[in-house]
Amino acid sequence: xxxxxxxxxxxxxxxxxxxxxxxxxxxxxxxxxxxxxxxxxxxxxxxxxxxxxxxxxxxxxxxxxxxxxxxxxxxxxxxxxxxxxxxxxxxxxxxxxxxxxxxxxxxxxxxxxxxxxxxxxxxxxxxxxxxxxxxxxxxxxxxxxxxxxxxxxxxxxxxxxxxxxxxxxxxxxxxxxxxxxxxxxxxxxxxxxxxxxxxxxxxxxxxxxxxxxxxxxxxxxxxxxxxxxxxxxxxxxxxxxxxxxxxxxxxxxxxxxxxxxxxxxxxxxxxxxxxxxxxxxxxxxxxxxxxxxxxxxxxxxxxxxxxxxxxxxxxxxxxxxxxxxxxxxxxxxxxxxxxxxxxxxxxxxxxxxxxxxxxxxxxxxxxxxxxxxxxxxxxxxxxxxxxxxxxxx
Length: 393
Ligand code: TTP
Ligand code: MG
What we know:
Elements: E1 5-10, H1 13-21, E2 30-32, E3 46-47, H2 49-52, H3 62-68, E4 73-75, H4 79-96, E5 100-104, E6 107-111, H5 116-119, H6 122-137, E7 141-146, H7 149-158, E8 164-166, H8 172-176, H9 189-197, H10 203-207, H11 211-218, H12 220-229, E9 246-256, H13 259-280, E10 282-293, E11 298-309, H14 312-323, E12 333-341, E13 344-345, H15 352-356, H16 358-377, H17 385-388
Parallel strand pairs: 2-4, 7-8
Antiparallel strand pairs: 1-6, 1-7, 2-3, 5-6, 9-12, 10-11, 10-12, 10-13
Residues 9-10, 13, 106-107 line the site of magnesium ion (MG).
């Protein structure tokens, strides 16, 4: 499987949280949305699977739900509580991969590329997440595993509640083709009725049409639908914080050129960046090096970290790799910068490399000690020996 994507979606989320916290509601039709006697214009947020047997669905007028199931338990719900549980769920996901893309309050995509060494194949990671959520939060979720986002979301929906469904590349046609066209992303009521007028009801029928016919009818969107219908989806899992970065740079009063001095400055900048990452609760997945020469020519080099990091040494080491790709010979340097990007949340994230590399465990301990001293006596109260030998520019 090329890019193993997992999609997790909680089962009857708001209702399930209420049933967990109020055992007297368990096994009963629970409807979240309000009190149908008072909130006459309210709609159903969600309903327990027991309530769905009566035909109750999200977005249905509450009074209609009341008519369908007069003995149902109608609750207003508690958004603050659901938001808190949502945060706990996302924290569980980020133990397994930094690449978590929340899609709504109760679902997320996870890219688990490269996580196999620590946690096993994608199916095993999916099962472990399901088990963590059950054991720690006493809630049920459905999970899909597939080669891309579209298929992973289709998969998680196939065996709700409590399902774990894998769509392997060889299963795509068999699973996808019988589904109704509404399951394609971007197909709303309007597009669906237009497709039905063309005699197309299922994804399979759409996939078998010539692409040109769909582009003629729907333009660019037609080509997109055609690709999805064939199970192709190139969208990446993106974390909301990916755009953010933390960086530090310094301009020298006089150009510098001594390589030892360059490295010492970079270590100090990496140290600043790492401290800032820790203070803000981030881990970096990428680092950048910026070098501006005396004539204002500027080069930047970017590299990926072997594991998400918020410590000086992994960042500095990568910066040195990048430095080796920059021509320094005989050129005066006016400015140096170190940046970190692809930031992910530290909360609940096991710093994967720490388990594998005991050198980093030591580094983490030293860093914690430095952070503590600095919190008390101020920044710069403790210095690494390497920082002290640098000659001031
Ligand atoms: P969903 O995941 O769509 O629904 P669900 O988790 O309740 O049930 P399922 O097992 O089918 O996934 O939405 C998550 C929560 O978002 C849901 O519990 C309540 C809220 N919600 C609304 O408030 N209004 C809506 O129209 C929908 C669809 C959801
Ligand atoms: Mg859900």
